Amino acid sequence: MCSTGFARSLGFALVPLATCCIVANVLLFFPDGQLNYVQEQHVTQYVWFFMGIGGGGLAMLIPACVFLGMGKCVYSCGTESCAMCGSVIAALIGLAGSGYCFLISGLALLRGPFCFTRLGWLYPFEQDEGRYLFARERWSECIQPNHIVEWNVTLLSILLGLSTLEFLICFLQFISGLVNAVCRPCCYKQEYSLNA
């Protein structure tokens, strides 16, 4: 039962992380808090990949719900190893979702924001390979939306951090579930043969 308690605590940790990923992704659609940029499609292309909403958010609610329901599953299945097999599959979904969120957020951060410059709407740091992140003096190249570089860098960094935490949590449960699903039946068989 110790491993189900551990899984439940991981499930509780995933819920706020998934919620924060969804909020961060939604905020990326509204730079400077304005609606007109998304209506005119003047937002970075990567926000339409829904990395925080889908990958770090909704996909992460699947393992969160499974981990939180571990106690009920053990009660209905009768064995903890059966429940742990389900948690391993859920953890794999979580690993895929958080990995997707991390990958797309990283690509968006490297490409830089889509903004209005002296040459029109474009990605001014696209060929920069992320060096613009350490050259704040260049951020003024983006005239509109106001503070778009800070907005994107902050929110995408938050998504990177949250998806890393989600990945680690799902990886922990994957290892824990795998060990419990494989080892417990073996241990019970050995214990049974010794008693017999």
Task: Walk me through this protein's architecture.
The chain is mainly α and 196 residues long. It has one domain (2-195). The protein has helices at 2-28, 36-39, 51-68, 70-77, 80-111, 148-195, and strands spanning 115-117, 120-122. It has a two-stranded antiparallel sheet. Strand 1 and strand 2 form a beta hairpin. The longest helix has 48 residues, at 148-195. The chain is elongated, with a radius of gyration of 22 Å. It is a multi-pass membrane protein. It is found in: Membrane. Keywords: Membrane, Transmembrane, Transmembrane helix. InterPro entries: L6_membrane (IPR008661).
SSE order: HHHHHEEH
**Helix content percent band:** 55-70%
Name the strands of the widest sheet in spatial order: 1-2
Q: Choose one word for the global shape.
A: elongated
Find the structural class using helix and strand composition: mainly alpha
Mean pLDDT: 88
Radius of gyration: 22 Å
The major β-sheet equals: 2 strands, antiparallel
Oligomer: single chain
Protein name: Transmembrane 4 L six family member 18
InterPro entries: L6_membrane
Membrane topology: Multi-pass membrane protein
Family: Belongs to the L6 tetraspanin family.
Looking at this protein, list some descriptive labels.
196 residues; mainly alpha; two-stranded antiparallel sheet; 6 helices; 2 strands; disordered C terminus
